[in-house]
Amino acid sequence: MQTGKTNSNQTVYDVAIIGAGPAGALAAKKLRDQGASVVILERETFPRFSIGESLLPHCLNLLENAGLLQPVIETGFQFKNGAAFQRGDEKRDIDFREKYDAGWGTAYQVKRAEFDKVLADNAEKAGADILYGRTVTRSDLNKGDCHLTHVGEDGDTMVTSSRFVLDASGFGRVLSKLEDLELPSTLAMRTVLFTHMEDQITDPEFDRNKILITVHPKKKDVWYWTIPFSDGTSSVGVVYSNDEDLPDEEVFKRHLQETHLGELLKNASQTRPLGKIKGYSCDVKSLHGPGFALLGNAAEFLDPIFSSGVTIALQSSELAVPLVLKELEGQSPDWENDFSKPLKKGVDVFRVFVQSWYEGGLQDIILNRPEEKTDIELMMVSILSGYAWSEDSPLVQNPTRILRLLEKMYA
Length: 411
Ligand code: FAD
Prior knowledge:
By secondary structure, the protein is an alpha+beta fold. The protein is about 35% helix and about 25% strand. It has helices at about 20-35, 55-65, 70-75, 110-125, 175-180, 250-255, 260-265, 310-330, 335-360, 360-370, 375-385, 395, 400-410, and strands spanning about 10-20, 40, 80, 80-85, 90-95, 105-110, 130, 135-140, 145-150, 155-165, 180-185, 190-200, 210-215, 225-230, 235-240, 270, 275-280, 285, 290, 290-295. The strands form 4 sheets. Strands 1, 2, 7, 8, 9, 10, 19 and 20 form an 8-stranded mixed sheet that branches. Helix 1 (about 20-35) runs parallel beside helix 4 (about 110-125) and helix 2 (about 55-65) packs parallel to helix 8 (about 310-330). It starts with 11 loop residues before the first strand and ends with a helix. The structure holds flavin-adenine dinucleotide. The site of flavin-adenine dinucleotide (FAD) has 38 residues, from helix 1, strand 2, strand 8 and helix 8.
C-alpha cells in the first residue's frame, strides 16, 4: 500500500472513489487516515442540492468513528431527537433517546448542500484529492488494476488509474450501469414531489426537533415529510403511488390540502422549485466484483419513509474500508461474507419495516402503541434510530415475526 500524503501528480492512486456524497466522503476520510492515497471523481461542484435531509442517530456513531462528527456539530444544523407521526387526529411521537441499543440517541436535520460539503472538505483536509466537475463515463476494472474515464464540464476526457474503485455515485449508479449490475427493485413504483419552504409555522405544538411524518387520512400509501431546518425553512415532500394527469404544482398543493399540513403551512412560501422523482427504489445483482465495490445508493435504495438512506450509505463505507485495505495489501478479502451479507442484513430489516408501513401495519403499531416502554418498544425505536445492524436486538434478528406479533397486538 502506498503511504503518506496523496500527490495529485501520481499516476496510480490506491483508491478512486466515484462521487463525493456521504458514502464517498466517509470512505475517503477513513482510507486516508489509514495511509491510502485516494482520489474522488465528482460530477457536480459543491455545494450542490441533494435530497435526504433527516439523519438518524446511528449516523452520528459512524461519523464519529471516521473523525467527522465534530465538524458536523460545529456547523450548527437543526438538532433532532425523534419523529412525530400524524394521521387525521391521531398523533404519536417517537423519542430516539428511548431506545434499546447503546450509542447516539439524537441526530440532525441537514441541508445536504452544506452537510455534504462539510464531509467532502474534511476528506480533502485529510489528504484526499477531489476532482469536481468530472463525470465518470467508462470503467475498465480488474483486480489491482482499474481505470476510470471521466469527462469535464468542457468535454475534456481524462483517465484516472487506481488499484481499487469504490462506486459512491448514489442515484448516478455509475458501475451498476457500466458493469451491467442493475436489477429492478421488488418494491412498488412510487413518486415523490418535494421542495423547501420558508415555513412560517406558528402552531405551538409543532416540534422543530422532530421530523413530522403525516399519513393521508384515507390513503395509507400516501405520506408526507416536514423536516424543519435551523434557519426557519423546512423540507416538505409527498410520496404517492397513483400518478395523475395534472401539473405537479397542483398535485402537490392538493395533497397538502387533504391533510393538516394545509393549515400548518398556510403562510409558507416555496424557496426552491418543486422536485420530482418517479420510481426511486433500485437494486443490483452484486455489491462487488474484481477491483470494485458499491457503496450507499449506488448499490440499493429502498424508500425514504424511515430516513435510512444516509445511515445505510455511511454503514456501507464503514464495512467496506477494512476490506479495501486488505485488497491494497494484496490479499483477497471475502466481500460476500464480510461486506454484502452484513450490509444486507440491516437493509433487509428496513425493508421489512418499509413493507409493513405501506401495508398499514407499522402505521397502526406506531400510532397505537402503549406509553409504557417495554423492551420490544425500545427495540423498535432503536431500528427507527438506525440501529438495524444490532447484534443484540431480537427485533433485528427476527423483524418479520415480531412485527406480525405487534401488528396483531396494536392494529
Ligand atoms: P449521494 O448523496 O447521492 O452522492 C452521490 C454523488 O455522486 C453525487 O454528489 C453525484 O453528483 C455524484 N455522481 C453521480 N454520478 C456521477 C458520475 N457519473 N461521475 C461522478 N460523480 C457522480 N436519506 C436519509 O438519510 N434521510 C432522509 O430524510 C432521506 N430522504 C429521502 C427522500 C427521497 C425522496 C429520496 C429519493 C431519498 C431520500 N434519502 C434520505 C436517501 C438519500 O438521499 C441517499 O440515501 C443518500 O444521499 C445516499 O448517499 P450516497 O453518498 O450514497 O449518494
